[in-house]
Design goal:
alpha/beta, 12-stranded mixed beta sheet
Length: 341
């Protein structure tokens, strides 16, 4: 089987450290991960690096097989990112180079999956500010990957063993959320959630809740009209299409009942209207083992649930649990997809 493609994220953050810690911890993992990114941070970590090259990749395209290194020691199998930005107009600041290397790596790793040389993509944390400054005009991985894969609508899901949440809107100022909500966006996010639960998790008849936007689900329009005019009509349309979504439920009691109620009564996922509505509860429940998944792509992509951690980078304090969980989930989803063929 071809490897997973891994982008460690911003080279100045904790991404390379969590990748290396996971490789050292999981026996034989180095041969199952092809890292695409800057060489420098792995050198600083003292990792054994085995490089591959563009020429090796071109040869592998002919055979449709990318052979891993034979080393049995923990190692980073690396396709190195360029050591300089391609255009002087971007500037020469270290942060610009880091943003360029992160963006270049995402684009290159995605192409490896699209060409069949990698089975899935696992990403580390990036600085969105640096990414944009380096010429990649996307507010995050989700939007960048949608562009690379030619998809207009994708959905961000975060999942752990207790809760899965999907987002209708993602990286958006809170004041802009009500105006950004549409019936079609809710329908798309909910459909992709249902489809993912069936195809990826093998849940034949998923139960999916839709969270309200306003307190008390708007109290029939008293605290906002979004439930009356947008969310409820979207749910009715979903049911007619064969997606039996339930809701809208007030978010505060929805998550409280989910956690405290019996396992059999839990929803398989909750569709949330905005970023923090979903991410606060899912990370509060199990921050270390929560994984980000992009739904609606023609490939499998998982990621850590945390940021770049510039304040602790290089200190050895980074927790690699989320990256380890992202790798495990990607491998499980790959196996599930293969078994379903």
């Amino acid at each position: 089987m071809n490897p997973l493609a891994v982008t460690p994220g911003d080279p100045d953050g904790i991404g390379p450290e969590v990748v290396w810690k996971t490789i050292r911890e999981v026996r034989g993992l180095g041969a199952r991960l092809l890292c695409v990114g800057a060489r420098r941070p792995f050198e600083k970590l003292g990792a054994k690096i085995i490089e591959t090259s563009e020429e090796e990749l071109r040869l592998a395209l002919k055979s449709h097989r990318l052979r891993p290194p034979a080393s049995r020691e923990p190692h980073v199998w690396l396709l190195p990112a360029p050591e300089a930005v391609p255009s002087a107009s971007l500037g020469t600041a270290p942060a610009i180079l880091a943003g360029f290397q992160a963006g270049w790596s995402i684009k290159k790793a995605t192409r490896l999956v699209q060409r069949g040389l990698a089975t899935a993509l696992v990403t580390g944390p990036i600085s969105k500010e640096r990414l944009i400054a380096a010429g990649y005009s996307f507010p995050g991985h989700t939007e960048f990957l949608a562009h690379l894969c030619g998809k207009k609508t994708v959905t961000m899901m975060l999942a752990n063993d207790t809760l899965r949440v999907s987002l209708v809107t993602t990286h958006l100022a809170l004041r802009d959320v009500p105006g950004a909500l549409t019936q079609q966006k809710i329908i798309s996010a909910t459909k992709q959630t249902f489809n993912s639960l069936q195809a990826g998790w093998g849940i034949a008849r998923p139960r999916v809740a839709v969270a309200a936007l306003n307190p008390h689900a708007g109290e029939s329009g008293l605290f906002g009209r979004e439930e009356v005019e947008i969310i409820c009509p979207a749910i009715r349309k979903l049911r007619k299409l064969g997606y039996p979504a339930e809701g809208p439920f007030p978010a505060d009691t929805l998550f409280a009942k989910h956690v405290s109620g019996p396992l059999k009564g839990r929803f398989d996922a909750v569709v949330c209207m905005y970023h923090d509505q979903g991410l606060i509860p899912v990370k509060l429940l199990d921050f270390g083992n929560t994984v980000n998944i992009t739904l609606g792509l023609p490939m499998i992509r998982t990621s850590v649930d945390h940021g770049v951690g510039f304040d602790i980078a290089g200190s050895g304090q980074a927790d690699h649990s989320s990256f380890r969980a992202a790798v495990a989930l990607a491998e499980r989803l790959v196996r599930k997809r293969r078994s379903d063929r």
